[in-house]
Amino acid sequence: MPLKNSFDGKTTFAVDLGFGVLVVRDVPATVCSQCRADWIKDNIASKLEDIVNDARRRHHIVEVTTISA
Question: Strand, coil or helix: what is 58?
Fold first, then answer.
């Protein structure tokens, strides 16, 4: 986890579900100011897991959404 040289920002999370693709935009993350690598906190990762599970149930080929903070 970055401590120095990082800032609060946003990232895009994408996952291939096998039958389709899910893209979640505007995901809160800690971003490295040097290499732009991003880290997602546990509470945000839990929300992403819920979004992925919902997408699996809906079974859309392409789904693009944003995360609610």
Answer: helix
